[in-house]
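Task: encode each sequence below as structure tokens.

Item 1
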Amino acid sequence: MWNTVVSALKTNFTDYHAVDLPGFGANKDCVDSVERMSDFVFSYMDNHQILDAIIIGHSMGGYVALEMLSKQPNRINGIGLIHSHAASDTEEKKDNRKKLISFIERNGEKAFLHQFTKQLIATQNADTNRLNQVNKLVEGTRPEAIISASKAMIKRTDHTNTLSVDIPFLWIIGKEDAFMPYTSVMRQAKLCLTAEIHLLDNVGHLSMYEAPEQTQDIIAGFVESV
């Protein structure tokens, strides 16, 4: 997910850690709650002797970042919400996730992932090269991971009130994001006491692939300012 930007961000003064959440990448241990995902990241920090950090999360990773902030705010110096938001699922969204779980249980993951990748990027960015990049990104995602992540998102806590914690927030919002309508995300961003907000034109749900250099610059600038 973050390979397109992390290598360009590392400096002599700042370390960046790209962590595979449970069930994804090299991390094969699935969990079905955002709280347990946040516990995993705190354990990672403990194991690497990281006392505090800026936590930057994409989509579900943003839910994990906010959960971490609500649990141990003294260890969080800043939050980056990249194509993410703070609200819990609506009832309609929960129903859709339950239908997805049933679909995966019956049919496996391939048909879902084929359609899912097309929705991740803005239509104008869907050239062959970028679609191949996104397909490689989700390649190997196991059905158990999709199911457990869906269950975690269904029951996640609403963290709208957590946005009032007095630390710096970074928001990267895609104007063409099919999963996070930018108007509602912008309303949430304005609830923060300190917020750096970037609304990217012609970008969907994956600015790291659709606008990698711009995303690098935004994140690097935010980290430097914090």
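Item 2
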Amino acid sequence: MKTRAMALGAVMVDLAGPTLSEAERERLLHPQVAGVVLFTRNFESWQQLADLCEQIHRLRQPRLLIAVDHEGGRVQRFRQDGFTPLPPMARLGKLHDLNPMAADEAARALGWLMAAELLAVGVDFSFAPVVDLNHGRSQVIGERSFHGQAQTVAQLAGQWLAGMHEAGMAGVAKHFPGHGFAQADSHTDVAVDERDWEALQADLLPFQALIAQRVEGIMPAHVIYPAVDTRPAGFSPHWLQTILRQQMGFDGAIISDDLNMAAAKAVGNIVKRAELALAAGCDLLLALNDVAGADRLLYGLDYPIRPLSQARRIALHGRARFNVKNLRRQRQYALAQHYMEQLI
């Protein structure tokens, strides 16, 4: 099939399995599509995944984005046949409490490893690092968080991002302005953080640190912070434009969390959710695990291509420097495996 020249849209969709069906191929050529989010069901082997990513990238120019949740710990979609099972980020936090310098080095090495393995098969970026604070309240965050102290999270997430950048991958800090205090899981319930504005300040510190480090993407939480806005952060112009853009100076891509999560469904149907997220300031939308809903969104959304948003999306493309054959010969690969042995 001939590669089509067409701008990236604003919607990321998913696939049913490890191969690309004809119906999925046609869906990925819809002008509102920006790319694909992969899941464990899309993975059988390293070579199969590389072939799938190549097929997706050949469809369009600029090439479609390919992303995955690949943080480490319980949120890592690929764990075998060449992929290193990464530890939960909390282990780096515990190492920091004993030896801050070793934790910094380990975080940078593992950020590189995560990014390099994904780039080698053609995945553009991972939704990482998580910079939520561990307040000891949120089961959905828990060990996904580096630590409970804001400065420690900022330091370790910054090192993780530096490793990603060294490998050639863009970073996506999540979940702005912080999901660690809300007890409800926004995947299944409406999540609320009742703290006042002063108490929320610490959770913003890691995001501010990564903005200074030129993180390319930030994902807002589907959490309501009544002290600031009655809308979830991902649908709030005040959070995304006034605070994140104007006050904190972020100029990268704002990427919605999945619009099919329960906390997002409270604001309306799939098209309404997308319109509200775009109006609030999102550049990229995730519409996952509901094929019919994704099609309703693609054909119901009237959204013009905005040059600035287009540039932010293109900045998420991976800059692959490795392939299956040369990855394990890299000095950084041996270093990362050394730190893995210490953290297991």
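Check on item 2: The longest strand covers residues 33-38. Residues 85-290+301-343 form a domain with the TIM Barrel fold (CATH 3.20.20.300).
End of task.
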